[in-house]
Amino acid sequence: MAKITYDDKSTLNPQPSIANENKVTSGDMNEIKTVVNGLDDEIGTLSNLNTTVKTDVVSALNECNGKVKNNTEYSTTETIVGTWTNGKPIYRKCFIGSNLSIGTQNTTISSNFASNLDDIISITSTIKLGGSPYSGITRDWNTLLSTGGSLIMVAFNTARTFDKVNIIVEYTKTTD
After folding, report:
1. 98 lies in which domain range?
2. Strand spans (E) along 19-159
3. What is the pTM of this model?
4. Which ranges in 44-175 belong to alpha helices (H)?
5. Does some domain include residue 66?
6. C-alpha angle with apex 47: 46 to 50, nearest 5 degrees?
7. Measured distance CA(176)–CA(171) in Å, rounded
8. Per-residue pLDDT reduced to its tens digit, 159-172
């Protein structure tokens, strides 16, 4: 959107042969200018929006709507779910496993779950063992990320087979 920049119009000699409903007066033109410029002030410029789309308001709003939707979605596909404090996009990816045997050594869940991994924002893990769900860190297991971006599970004390493992990782990338 852009402001109307022409000077205010002044009254011209009216044409009596034109019906009043078909006339555009200087007052009409000046009112249109005032309304459009007021809307422009309220909306601001697209370049100030925190979106990648800067071409039109509808596309920018659709992008914002998609971000809100993504923030409540959990998927095994990498999804942008927000923005970190440094302005980088936050990605989320979920890993779901069943009948996972974990020994006292590292077990790789994903060898390279995120290319160009930068910061880990959060890792949430839940397991189901013998029909009972557990969340967080227990005495027998923990989830970690290796420096190479591999998602690993480490078991302490004893080997276990988990009925189900859910791991949710939120992170930023060096390329953003």
Report:
1. 75-173
2. 79-83, 89-102, 107-110, 117-129, 132-135, 141-145, 151-155
3. 0.56
4. 57-71
5. no
6. 85
7. 11
8. 667 777 788 889 89
